[in-house]
Design brief:
By secondary structure, the chain is an alpha+beta fold. It has 2 domains: 11-114, no CATH class; 163-217, HU Protein, Chain A. It contains 8 helices and 5 strands. The chain has helices spanning 11-23, 53-67, 78-91, 96-103, 108-114, 122-135, 142-162, 207-214; strands spanning 166-168, 172-178, 182-185, 192-195, 199-205. The strands form 2 sheets. The protein has a 3-stranded antiparallel β-sheet. A two-stranded antiparallel ribbon has the order 3-4. It is extended and about 70 Å long. 2% of the residues are buried. Residues 30-39 have low confidence and may be disordered. Belongs to the bacterial histone-like protein family.
Length: 217
């Protein structure tokens, strides 16, 4: 069943869309399938003219994977991105009814299924720690536990921004590294572009942690 869905693009995306709309040449004999109207639903100006849009989107994402050297084991598809968006918004605190409207679902139960079960939020982590401490007869409240978690995350972020390395023995270490400048291809213009060096966060898991994870089948 087809239905209209309103999206909220960023300013960067809007600029890219307008650049594409202005420079894209019209092709004779094209089949016009309306995917995104400009300004209002009554206009006849289209962003994309295509018959097999899903197939084209899949090919584009495959190009992105190659450009960014993303492992073949990592799934990258329009549906994957949609689910990641839903999960991120839910973890960031967006109410489920609001997320339901954003995704265009008729049932809230469908929206709930979009959120990945294995993503652990601060609230869920707090609940787990509280339950564990309760069994050990510890006296910390959920509010106190949440404060400790938030402080840990905040201080971790500050340390990484400063360029410091954080080590949790037997678990993992967090640090930052500077990537090398490189030349890539702009997938829209097909022209080469220079990507400057930048500082990025890095994580290294301990051998013990890797061994424990490997036991899980």
């Amino acid at each position: 069943m087809e239905r209209n869905l309103t999206i909220l693009p960023t300013n960067q995306l809007l600029a890219q869309v307008w650049d594409y709309a202005i420079t894209r040449p019209a092709k004779r004999g094209e089949h016009k399938k309306e995917l995104w109207n400009i300004n209002n639903p009554n206009t006849k100006t289209y962003i994309f003219y295509a018959v097999k849009v899903k197939k084209n989107a899949g090919k584009f994402l495959e190009q992105v994977k190659k450009e960014l050297n993303i492992s073949e084991n990592i799934e990258l598809s329009p549906h994957t991105l949609r689910r990641c968006f839903a999960t991120y918004q839910a973890i960031s605190g967006m109410p489920l009814p609001v997320l339901q409207k954003v995704l265009g679902h008729s049932k809230i139960s469908t929206t709930a299924l979009y959120i990945r079960d294995r993503d652990l939020s601060n609230l869920q982590l707090t609940e787990r720690i509280a339950n564990n401490l309760s069994r050990k007869r510890a006296s910390l409240t959920k509010s106190q536990i949440e404060s400790v978690i938030n402080e840990l995350l905040t201080e971790t972020k500050k340390a990484l921004v400063k360029g410091e390395t954080i080590r949790f023995p037997s678990y993992y270490s967090l640090t930052t590294a500077i990537t090398k400048p490189r030349v890539a291809m702009n997938l829209q213009t097909k022209k080469k572009m220079n990507i400057p060096a930048k500082r990025v966060p890095k994580i290294k898991f301990s051998a013990d942690l890797k061994a424990e994870v490997a036991k899980k089948k």
